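Encode chain A's predicted structure.
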Amino acid sequence: MPAIIAGIAEPILSLTDAAIVGHIPVNATESLAAVGIVTTFLSMLIWVLGQSRSAISSIISQYVGANKLDEVKNLPAQAITIILILSLLICFGTYPFSNAIFKLYNASGLLLDYSVSYYKIRVFGLPFTLYTFAVFGVFRGLQNTYYPMLIAITGAMVNILLDVLLVYGIADVFPPLYLKGAAIASVFAQFLMAALATYFLLKKTEIPLKLTRPFNKELPRFLNMIKHLIVRTLALNTALYFAARFATAYGNTYIAAYTIAINLWFFAAFAVDGYASAGNILSGKLFGAKNYHLLLQLSNRLIKYALIVGVIMGLIGALFYKSIGIAFTNDPEVLEQFNDIFWMVLLMQPICALAFVFDGIFKGLGKMKDLRNVLILTTLFVFLPVLFITDYYGWKLHGVFTAFTLWMIARGIPLIIKFRKQFLPQVQNH
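Encoded structure for chain A:
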């Protein structure tokens, strides 16, 4: 449960921005669409470099399982330093080219202007988010999800409060900042979470943040994991990029509806990520202890929980079907497009839950190469062909979410088969 709450912090930032911005009195649809485009691009950057969380967690948990934690105590500081340097390079590397970047998403005119101004503020939260993710990875490896939960709750609550204050302003104190206010609120919340992560890591664990030499013996394995995960995440974001690009090409109404749907999908994904986190944390520990019997039991239990959670989220969405869209926009055309495809997002939930849980298990086992290969193949041979074919036949957003659904099925099944093929014989032989 703490892992679920911690996992939804980042999507809550984007969901809050979308919900509040979608109701501003000036150009609400364009503002909502801009949040969607920028969120897609920022998610790509966060997921590419945020994979350090899984790599750190995998290594730390395996050493915890083997009762050899002292051997990797200086690894997190070295890993976090590398991630921070990369994130700063990306910040200053993309900032001057933000106009060109969002033109690649088919943004133009007012939508392009809004996307650029929103991004030029939100991008400064990237290093704080990646730093927090890396520290969360350390806590996960130590089998602790409590402190990440506290940090995430605080960040989400501060973000919601600042969103309301800065977007709408305070009469006779300062004017409404609209879209820029939402961006400033998110960056401040990300900074606060990074500060709290530092405090809890230094006060509640024996892991130092001071950079020391020599390089830890596990640093090459960490970098190798990161390499595989970055390639994997580039494949993931190829899918997200083309989905956003096609939705934008259909018009502002469509990209606004897509923004609501995809942010709700991200929220559900990160909620299930709590179970994926459990898979990551415990599979690494059990694999390190060579306890394959419990590892198999863990996978069976997580399958059951993931399906239950996926079905529950789908049913909750169905119960509040009409009112969910209204929480994000009053534009009748956007609502019509959103309501027309939201059922597809709901039907995907159990499928996504299974895929995400086994993603987590494979990350805990350190099998990043398998994850990389599955995602590259399913993006190239499932998602993109389905997207282009359905676009040709004019399915528009229905085509986008049909591609997502088939992609998730193709991602989950090979991982389940491979896991059981490897560990079932080991359990039976013992």
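The chain has a mean pLDDT of 87.
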